[in-house]
Amino acid sequence: MSTAGGAQTWLLECNNCGAKISASGTTSGGNPSCTHAFGPIGGYTAPPKKGKRKIVYPTDAERKWLRIIDQNKDENEKHTVTFEKDQTQLAKLHKEGMEAIKIAIQALQTQLEERQEELEGDLNRAFEERKEKIKQNMAALEQHKTKNEETKDNAEDLLESNDKEEAEREKIIVGECENVINTTPQIKYIPTKLQYTFTSLKTIQGKIEKFGKLNTNPVTSGNKCDFDSMTAATKAPAATPKEVNLDDVLVLQLKNSTFDPKAKKVKLSFKVNPKKGNIAGIDDPKKHLKVHVFCAEDDEDQKGEDTAPIHEETVDFSTCKPLKNKFEISINHQFQPGLTIAFKLRPKFATPDETKWQESFGKWSREQTIDIPDDDVTFTLELNGKQQKLKLQDDDKALTDFKQFEAKFLGQFNQNLKSNQTLFLSTDDGVLDGQSQLTKYATESYIIRGQITVNQPKEEIPPAAYTSSPKVASPKVEEPGGGGGGGQPGADLANAPKQISTIVVFSDTKKRVVLKKKNNEYTISSLKEKVVKKLKTKGLSGDFQLETKEGTRISDDNAIITYLANYEGELKVIKG
């Protein structure tokens, strides 16, 4: 209850227009045309006065996007109407097609039934004709048989009665027998073959299989439902750039890798496998596609560990060379000869507008590896003060067969040894022989010197080319980087495997160490260097020894091949 001005008491108030009613029933204020809904005083809220409402104007971006969604709605409705018409047309054509099938099949059925009657009629007539002829022949044979038997009976009766003269009896019997023979039926057997062949059955069946052809267009060949609003949206300002999931759009599959010996570069071929996804606002993602290539050394020591790249590069997809259903890319880098390189690649979406789309990468392809061929092996040779260069392929037998190397050495200087002559080869490191690793000396820092001597009885071996004393016998020199002699002599480097892999155990840590023949790593120093590299972080330093589980110490170069070439156990690190 409310009192206004101390004179009038108001009991109720209209919730619609604010009119009040007093205790005496008097109504005041409000809208006379209102259908009042009276309630407690205070239930009515007056509408804001005109001119007081705050008007918010849309930004340019909001106004453009509102127009775009209106356009998008109109296009949606237009396409819906087209689909409804197509659905009606599709149902009509389906009904007509079913009726056409029915008419065509009925026509075939009628023709087949008529043909069936013709075939059965021909068969029945042929059957009756042959049946009747066989019956006639059998009747003629039966009649002739009866006549034959009667003639024989009559002849026997005449012979038994003996009431005829012999001449007369003979005439009667012979005459009746001749009559039987002369009246023998002249008939033929009736062929009973009644067999239908349907030589054109398979042809007709093949025709029936092809009878009737449904003419359609592929479901996916229809015209695209154009939404111009989508094109307009690409030109409208975006609040934030859109994220692009490139894996839903396409994936790169690395197929193979090859080495170009002339350019000394690697070529990779790959396929682009499209997925069902797309990038909104981008008609052809390949126009904005780049290929990112990762190249690293394929080292067994680093399997399962993070590998630092030797080379990385990103190229435009448009520059990749098409090869049928694949593409080829040439890596713009020359890799060190003798390495095994692992390659992988992934797609990169290069955004044409950073305000609309974010730059993104797809997933990596599977790795492909390739061996980078070694360069030619070049030696500097010297004989009688003259120098020559000897180039050998990395697989030349002369690199592992010392006799062949001696022959090539002489050939470079057009020399031939006589029966009483011997060739000695040496470097500043010492005399070379069948145990020497020749590839170690294929550098500019080494000169292989030759000396041809005449063999004389009871005289010491001529000195090596590097020594000045004629009485010093040629020493057996340790191979560089090795542990010297003391191992199993006669380890066959030429027939050793291309690489030796073994597990090294230190404390509770196990690491795999790989030695490669082509890198001249079959030495104790190379083995220990790799062990330290792998276990340095585990506290390995200083002097140590390597021992097999059987207790055999690996202490020199020969032991590398002799014990480890086919060793499947583990090597234990012994400190001190």
Lay out the secondary structure.
Layout: E1 2-4, E2 8-14, E3 20-22, E4 27-28, E5 38-39, H1 60-161, H2 166-182, H3 201-209, H4 228-235, E6 250-260, E7 265-274, E8 289-297, E9 311-316, E10 321-323, E11 326-330, E12 340-349, E13 360-361, E14 368-371, E15 377-383, E16 386-392, H5 402-412, E17 421-427, E18 430-431, E19 448-454, E20 499-506, E21 509-516, H6 524-535, E22 544-548, H7 557-564, E23 570-575
Parallel strand pairs: 15-19, 20-23
Antiparallel strand pairs: 1-2, 2-3, 2-5, 3-4, 6-7, 7-11, 8-9, 8-12, 10-11, 12-13, 12-14, 15-16, 17-18, 17-19, 20-21, 22-23
Helix pairs in contact: 1-2, 1-4
List keywords for this structure.
576 residues, alpha+beta, five-stranded antiparallel beta sheet
Can you describe this structure?
This protein is of the alpha+beta class. The protein contains 7 helices and 23 strands. The strands form 5 sheets. Strands 1, 2, 3, 4 and 5 form a 5-stranded antiparallel beta sheet that branches. β17 and β18 (430-431) form a beta hairpin. Mean pLDDT is 83; it is low at 464-490.
